[in-house]
Design brief:
Layout (H helix, E strand, L loop, with lengths): L19 H17 L26
Length: 62
């Protein structure tokens, strides 16, 4: 809830929690991730095998 409202359509605040609830959830998540070893090192994934899809036009419908 944001300021007593269930929903706030403001783009800057819509997807971000505020207050003690979201803060404590974030702290718990970071501690659990550290305990389990998540994000311990950055992994570089090769992207050489990926290519963008071919552009599709109206002709591909029929």
């Amino acid at each position: 809830m944001r300021g007593g409202k269930d929903y706030d359509s403001n783009f800057a605040t819509r997807m971000k929690g505020s207050g003690p609830g979201p803060t404590s959830v974030g702290q718990r998540f970071r501690k659990a991730a550290a305990r389990l070893g998540f994000n311990a090192k950055k992994v570089a994934f090769p992207v050489d095998g990926f290519r963008p899809p071919a552009p599709m036009g109206q002709g591909t419908l029929f």
